[in-house]
Amino acid sequence: MSAIEIRLRREIQRSCRRAAALDFRACADLCEEMTSPLKIVHLELHTPDVGRARAFCANLCCWRTEQIEHASGSYHALQLGENLGGGLVECSTPRAVWLPYVEVARIDTATDLACRLGASVLLEPREGPAGWRSVIATPAAGEIALWQQKDWRL
Length: 154
Hints:
The protein has 154 residues and is α+β, with helices and mostly antiparallel strands. The chain has a domain at 40-97: 2,3-Dihydroxybiphenyl 1,2-Dioxygenase, domain 1 (Roll). It contains 4 helices and 8 strands. It has helices at 3-18, 20-33, 50-61, 107-116, and strands spanning 40-47, 65-70, 73-79, 85-90, 97-103, 120-127, 131-138, 142-149. It has an 8-stranded mixed beta sheet with strand order 2-3-4-1-5-8-7-6.
């Protein structure tokens, strides 16, 4: 378990205890689902210079990227290890920052709970080809993307 996962789990558990008076049922439902820590399933580097970030990651960590073209531009997919993927996103951020994607069972419930626990919603839940995501932020925990994978079973 990574330090980020441990910190996130502790933050959620502490917040769940503090938020009991706000909405005990929603908090209890989410915490009950968490028989194990929420899993980081994707890491995205938001950077003002994707070219330099790509070169640095390749030279230091031997991470290779694959440029994927889509309707609104391109995305640089990044293989970080056996079970963890990621990506590089060029944007107007003043400094590079990693955004962890945490898998949740229900995107709306998790986003709502984050708000009740004091988070700001930077990106409302929205659907993409592989699932739904939202991005929340708190002064204590930073920015976290919540991710709900689509069920591909027939």
